[in-house]
Design a protein that fits this description.
4-stranded antiparallel sheet; alpha+beta; globular
């Protein structure tokens, strides 16, 4: 019994320790770095889902925006997704990759911690690098 209790306590401590090191980013964190990099015209994006939908999707917040400008040949559609944890983001990202591969869609996916930025269709490489660097700058 004591051994079982020790294992249980150790498991709980490991779970707590694995989540302590991972910072949870907010939409404010993400929009700030994108705005500072000149990739968003505003720091204020509107979430598309209501609270009930967020609960049903496991706490995922989604903020859509459009990427366009004279340097691009077309409009690109993007979603910033804020997940409750990095683990839930990783599971979603895996499913998203499987669906994208099955459908043959070309998209960019940028991640940092509990944040995922999806852009459809895939951006030109130079533009994609700007978004990649901006997300990597989250501290």
């Amino acid at each position: 019994m004591r051994r079982l209790l020790s294992c249980l306590v150790l498991t709980i401590l490991l779970l707590i320790a694995s989540n302590c090191g991972a910072r949870k980013y907010t939409i404010e964190d993400v929009t700030q770095v994108l705005y500072e990099a000149g990739l968003l015209p505003t720091r204020h994006l509107t979430m598309t889902a209501d609270l009930e939908t967020i609960k049903r999707t496991g706490g995922i917040e989604t903020y859509p925006f459009t990427i366009e400008g004279p340097h691009l040949s077309r409009a690109y559609y993007a979603d910033i997704m804020i997940f409750p944890s990095q683990r839930s983001r990783e599971r979603f990202q895996q499913r998203e990759a499987e669906i994208s591969e099955a459908l043959g869609t070309k998209r960019d996916i940028f991640v940092k911690g509990n944040v995922m930025l999806i852009v459809l269709p895939a951006l030109p490489e130079a533009e994609a690098e700007k978004y990649r660097r901006a997300l990597e700058s989250l501290d």
